[in-house]
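User
Class, as today's exercise, I want you to study this protein, comparing sequence with structure tokens, and judge whether sequence predicts the tokens.
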Amino acid sequence: MLHLRYRLTNIILNMLTAIAEARVVIGRAKLLPKQELRLRRQALIRMTHSSTHIEGNMLNLNQVEAILGHQKIDAPARDIYEVENYIKALRYISQMVERKLPITEKAILKIHALVTNKTLPEEQSGHYRKGPVHVVRRRLGMPQETVYTAPEAKKVPQLMRDLVEWIQKSDKNGVNPIIAAGIAHAEFAAIHPFADGNGRTARALATLVLYARGYDFRRLFALEDYYNTDRSKYYKAINLGRTYEERKIDFTRWLEYFVRGFKEEIDNVKAKVATLALRKIDQNITSQIYLNKDQMKILEFLDQVSKITVQDVMDVLGCPKRTAQLCLQKLKKLKMISQVGKGPSSAYILAK
């Protein structure tokens, strides 16, 4: 069992309190479905762009948005794969949370497999490394410098089991979800369990911990933006030390950085939500326009694939055909979707 040390300083506690207050505001805000879908889509784009850009991906926000919309772009294949992969990993995380699946080693391996699909050999994608890993620093005109040596490969499986056990127990022990996510991120990065893709997987794991503990903030935030704004501060804060055994294992300084970034991002989300919620809405629109969970799930799926059928809704909701038809008719009546085609070939698209 891991014994991870940290102190909840006044700085951390004050920021956690402010985040909790913002969570209530964001959770209660009345947003029209199109507004919320747009904000979620923007968050997904920003998360993907920043997390991959930290690792050297050169695609810009517009290109990431184009890939999300299934459009072809002129860019290196690896960069495109990395973006597509991260989007798939984030969607897998959302599916895990919706199905209330536990955070396990198997889930982490699946996330890594998604993140590194087509960019790592099959025997390395979704599998712990078999050899040593060194984090190096490259400077123009200077020899390559090793700044961190990860633990031996033979120790990785046990270290990962210990980390997963800590994550699971942290929930039962009442550890604040933000603290748990921050520690999971830093400890995973220190273990460096894979040959490549550790940073992206660590950030995805932190997101999974937050989502699973009910701290998804309607999936409107992108903490990766904070890291990407000043990558040198990110690396300095995580401060792995020279080796896993010699590293500083008091997480307090890292948590102050992590919680501060989370607060900044949530403050931005709160401001956006407040602006939209304050806008006057047509008096003819009734409270029914604020959709239930299943209706939002249908719209989100439709936003991903552009066109859906009754069978798609049955698969997404796990419901009988009649229920799926009623859901679609309700959304059609509310002018959220439009029907194309008739009879067996009919389908639905987002209303313009």
Remarks:
- Residues 283-288 have pLDDT under 50 and may be disordered.
- The chain has two domains: 10-276, 291-350.
